[in-house]
Amino acid sequence: MLEDLKKLVCQANLDLVQQGLVFKTWGNVSGVDRPAGAMVIKPSGVPYSEMKPRHMVVVSLSTGIVTEGDLRPSSDTPTHLELYRAFQAIGGVVHTHSPYATAWAQAIRSIPPFGTTHADHFRGPVPVTRVMTDEEIAADYEINTGKIIVEAMTGLDPRELPGVLVADHGPFAWGPTSELAVESAAVLEQIAYLASLTRQVEPYPGFISRELLDKHFLRKHGPGSYYGQRS
Ligand SMILES: [Zn+2]
User: Fold this and answer.
1) How far away, in angstroms, is 202 Cα from ligand 1 center?
2) How many whole angstroms separate alpha carbon 91 and alpha carbon 175?
3) Mind listing the pLDDT tens digit for each residue in 133-173?
């Protein structure tokens, strides 16, 4: 079952390494099959060099119970499930500790839109979550991590902001597929890197104008987009 999705999710996890977003095993990608009511995710603690599609773990989207696979799923599985349940438009989720995005998360700073590189992919600041309470950390930590991400996205469109920084932790990113979720995670890291450099050059840079932000986002995304080749 879900053999194609297992291949895609396995490849997306390997792409995460290839794109330099993962140190050791600190990252995970999942993908969802909504008609099947199932999520496919990386197993916990398996070295990337040995990872094969047959190692991927299938989890019920509604119950979180493992329905297929011999290995334990990633420890962040409950966070991924919370995101799929809250954001119906997404088909893939990525978590990394990529250095620049993690630095902004640790500083508990939302990443402002300083330029068009940001605006091409995020239609506004990259949100940062609030800090978790002691109670939220003590019980159901991974579920609550998902809940504070959803909370940080209140009133925002996950198709326009494909990632969030979890305070004191790191980035979660998403997209229509697991492959595109990896792309979002890579873009988020680059945006965080550029924002860090911008702050070094000018400690108090101004934000990009709303007009330029919307221009760059909308020419790449949505019904009026015209960037790239017609598919
Ligand atoms: Zn983490």
Assistant:
1) 30
2) 6
3) 999 999 999 999 999 999 999 999 999 999 999 999 999 99
Query: How many Å lie between the centroid of ligand 1 and the Cα of residue 97?
Result: 6
Flag whether the pTM goes above 0.70: yes
So which residues are the catalytic ones?
120, 227
**CA 112, CA 17: separation in Å to the nearest integer?**
27
pLDDT in tens, 166-216: 999 999 999 999 999 999 999 999 999 999 999 999 999 999 999 999 999
From ligand 1's centre to the CA of 100, what distance in Å? 14
118's tokens:
């940001």
Within the chain, where are the H helices?
3-18, 77-86, 99-106, 116-119, 134-138, 141-152, 178-201, 210-220
Measure 179 CA to ligand 1 centroid, in angstroms: 19
